Amino acid sequence: MSNYHIKHLEEYYQVYRKSVREPENFWEEVAEEHFMWRKKWNNVLSWDFSKPEIKWFEGAQLNVTENCIDRHLVTRGDKTAIIFEPNDPKENSEHITYKQLHERVCKFANVLKNEGIKKGDRVCIYLPMIPELAISVLACARIGAIHSVVFAGFSSTALSTRINDSDCKIVITSDGSYRGAKTIDLKTIVDEALESCDGVKSVLVVKRINSDIQMKDGRDKWLQPLLDNASADYEAEIMNAEDPLFILYTSGSTGKPKGMVHTTAGYMVYTAYTFKNVFQYKEDDVYWCTADIGWITGHSYIVYGPLANGATTVMFEGVPSYPDFGRFWEIVEKHKVNQFYTAPTAIRALAKQGLELVEKYDLSSLKVLGSVGEPINEEAWHWYNDNIGKKNSPIVDTWWQTETGGIMITPIPFVTPTKHTYATLPFIGIQPTLMDENRNELKGNQVDGGLCIKFPWPSMARTIWGNHQRYKDTYFSTYENKYFTGDGALRDEVGYYRITGRVDDVIIVSGHNLGTAPIEDAINEHPAVAESAIVGFPHEVKGNALYGYVILKDTGESRNHNNLRKEINQIITEHIGPIAKLDKIQFTKGLPKTRSGKIMRRILRKIACKDTSNLGDTSTLLNPEVVQDIIENVL
Ligand code: PRX
Question: Separation of 501 CA from ligand 1 center, angstroms?
Answer without folding.
Answer: 8
